[in-house]
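FAQ
Q: What does a multi-component entry look like?
A: The components come first, one per line:
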Amino acid sequence: MTDETGSAREQTVVGHHHDDLDTTTLAYSGQAPSHAVMAQRAHRFGTWYHAEAVLRSMRAFIVPGLLNAVGQPLLYIIAMGLGLGALVGNGVGTVDGVDYLTFVTPALLVSTVVMSVSGEMTYPVMAGFKWMRTYYGPAATGLRPAQIAAGHLLAVVIRFVVQCTIFWVIAVAFGATSLGWSVLMVPIGVLAATAFGAPLQAYAASLEGEGFQFSFVQRFIVMPMFLFSGTFFPLAVMPVYLQWIGWLSPVWHGTQLARLVSYGASGPGWLIAVHVLVLVAATLAGVMWARRVYTRRLTS
Amino acid sequence: MGDLSPGSRDVELTPVTESVVEPVISARELRKTYGDFVAVDGIDFEVRPGESFGLLGPNGAGKSTTMRMIGGTLDRTGGDLAVLGMDPGPQGPTVRAHLGVIPQQDNLDEELRVRENLIMYGRYFGLSRSFLAAKADELLAFAQLEAKAKEKVQSLSGGMKRRLTIARGLVNEPKILLLDEPTTGLDPQARHVLWDRLFRLKEAGTTLVVTTHFMDEAEQLCDRLIVVDHGRIMAEGSPRELIRTYSTREVVELRFGSARNATVVAELDGVGSRIEVLPDRVLVYADDGEACLEEVARRGLAPVTSLVRRSSLEDVFLRLTGRSLID
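Then the predicted structure of the entire assembly, as tokens:
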């Protein structure tokens, strides 16, 4: 152990002479609003502030993201709609009273965003708490943990508004749907995504470490949901003992709503209400669960 | 309207003089337990406005736990805590809007660029983009990262990330800056530059609360500190007072080789006022170190190396706990 103190003092003095940094304005510029105002703004707009931060860090992936947002609908519409559709058209003719491309497009829109949300609300959530600890930055500001949770979800919602809009434009361009009410497929797609994404976000936040859980979700929840939610054929065609998957699946509820606005698929009014109710309820439950988990983890 | 003198505006803007007497932080019987484990065991302290207050202790002493309770990002188990007159439990977000928090572990957004990190963080305080544009440049200068402004955080060295984290904590011009082990990971030169800058921030009116397990940091940075161990306060005072109370003016460090250090103690009996045996050396506490060293030579004990130095907070800690700060 040597006497460091003396040399430290010397260096401090040297440092003083060398830089002309104005520490006074750094501590107090007179230009900033009062801290009470800062607290008030964080209270009101904190969710948006965090959404902005999340969107900014997503920007690094904007090119692959856009390629994905454009490429996925193109591939699906060509493969399922035109390829498989030609086969179906030659065989049974129409499905649900329309040609196969028209039938399958709303389902493809909904299921692709629900599949995307499973990526957005798992690993990035784990990164926020564990790998990058990015949630702990805003947690040390005037934001509440609930705003951090909601801000992350909001950023994802904004991303999906763009993604669904792109899908819809492509669908219109391919004649898979017509201009008009079909634009409501955008909010329906986003709602279906949050109905799955918000609870998933809360679940991901409740995990201390990632073992097998996320790939389990991918294989045993997302994939069956994609295949057995009336996406490629009406739910009623499936054996009864598999139909419950559709009833539990945001993809089916979203898809049925999307079909309604896309080509006017008919159904009883109560069922439409059930679709909306399930999606809204699942979203709200997820948001509330996430709020609890984020609050617990960011204050303990 | 026309006769608004600059002076009248100054009164409104003066940041620190409004609460000279009231402590900015006061803790009474502050407690945090995790099941059976007691992290903070009923501590009392007050931080006065404009001072630099330290929590010195080894890793696991409860320093970071205390810091997080001050910022309201950790719920306390018991006791009273007031920060700027508010309870950081229920009023955590409002309290935090007044604070600058530098956590022990960096949590920068690695996807963003260096300057963007500062701006985005400022957004959390509702600060305008125009304000933040100017602020970010000042903070980059503070952190000596002007040349890295457009780099991704991923590409920075550990020390640079640390400096950026510290600069980020200043974005809202906090009244109180909470620094949790601020210079861990910095090279010696960067530490001294940082200490200098923090000292000047304090001169400009910012209250500093620093946790550290480096005694030199505590000596350099803190006006007053508490020595913490196992969640309890062992002593409190200025570095100078603590050294005067718990140690002698000087210390003689003798190394006899690890095999002999323990056995030679008997022969040192009566030399200095107190002796501590560490695995690698023997410490003899005395007011006159040179005289001690002469006595050691007179007794025919030939240490491999010897050194006389001033007492430090390390010695205070050793005296209080029987252990070194850094294990």
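Q: Is there any commentary attached?
A: Sometimes. For this entry: The radius of gyration of chain B is 23 Å.
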